[in-house]
Amino acid sequence: MYPDVSIIVPVFNDQEGLEKCLQRLGGQSYPRDRYEVIVADNGSDRNIRDVVARYPRTRFICEKRPGSYAARNAGLTLATGEIVGFTDSDCLPRHDWIERGVAALQNDVNLGLAGGRVVLFHRDPQRLSPGEFYQEICGFPQEKYIEEKRFAVTANVFTWRKVLDDVGHFSPQMKSSGDKEWGNRVFEAGYGQVYAEDVVVEHPSRHRLRDLVRKRRRITGGRIQYNKIRGVEEPPLLEEFHRMRKFPEASLERFRDHPLLESEKNRTRFRRIQYLINISELYEIFRLRLGGAPRRQ
Q1: d(Cα 253, Cα 100) in Å, to the nearest integer?
Q2: CA dihedral (25, 29, 31, 32) positive or negative
Q3: What per-residue confidence (pLDDT) applies to 183?
Q4: Rounded mean pLDDT, 86-98
Q5: Can you say whether the dihedral through the CA atoms of 160, 164, 165, 166 is positive or negative?
Q6: What is the pLDDT of residue 12?
Q7: Of 135, 173, 153, nearest in space to 87 by CA
Q8: How far is CA 96 from CA 27, 75, 159, 230, 255, in A?
Q9: Nearest to 9 by CA among 93, 99, 112, 65
């Protein structure tokens, strides 16, 4: 028996990525009459609705409140499936993604979420840009997120609708780390969590360093929002400074076995990129503590 599935895809101004994602979702091995796709437009100033209209059994909703988690919540208002899967508009789910995601959930009656593997791809694997080089090393450690931090990134996660009804939806005010905050609630409610390596989406790596910097600023805002929701006190600024000063060497130690870090040249390259990202994070901490708002991108 095939349970009904709702797939929710938030999007903001990414027509090209959404088109490719919907093409992949339209060619799944799961029976086509047993799943729907819901595109949640987060206030794009480009015509997302026309892209969606080209794909059967794909529905459209607009959520203008900034933030992908607010958009995912809007998508949930339309969802009819017993199972809900989440991915992003720039992701390319493999042809058996839904089939394997459903199977992973069905392995355990008390499972709250199944997080799948996120595989990075690059413009030219033989000539990695600085952004691609860094992400190839750090990647999306979904298994670690699930086993150690009790959440899965929403680029690739499946859950039961009943779990969402029980623990609640995403925190809509969060611009980042909303998947962590929700996943922690799932875990604390007593549900199991599993890493499903064969449930795969492909994700483009960020080509430019400035895209990595923007991501880190967004993640920093999400971390601060997460701590506020969870009642965790932010460390003093001097402590933040010392943590980030030491972080490049700590990162090198963490990824010391990665093949790209065998040469001293590449280790130096990694340090420089990490220092740049840390400086941007420190700037963002100052900005937010002076009353700035978290960024959506």
Answers
A1: 34
A2: positive
A3: 98
A4: 98
A5: positive
A6: 96
A7: 153
A8: 9, 22, 17, 36, 31
A9: 93
Residue 256: exposure state from Cβ atoms within 10 A (0-12, 13-18, ≥19): exposed
H or E element that contains 188: helix 178-188
- Residues 97 and 102: their CA atoms lie apart, in Å, by 9
User: Exposed, middle or buried: residue 50 (CB in 10 Å: 0-12, 13-18, 19+)?
Assistant: exposed
Average the pLDDT over each of 157-166, 195-204, 282-291 and give the range with the smallest value: 282-291
Element (H, E) at 122: none
**Is a pLDDT exceeding 80 seen at residue 186?**
yes
Structure tokens at 162: 């009943």
**pLDDT confidence of residue 242:** 81
**Domain residue ranges in the chain:** 5-204, 209-289
Token output for 272? 């420089």
Tokens of 112: 């709250």
| Calpha distance 197→100 (Å, rounded) | 10
CATH code assigned to 5-204: 3.90.550.10
Res. 71: pLDDT tops 90: yes
Pairing of strands 83-86, 5-11: parallel
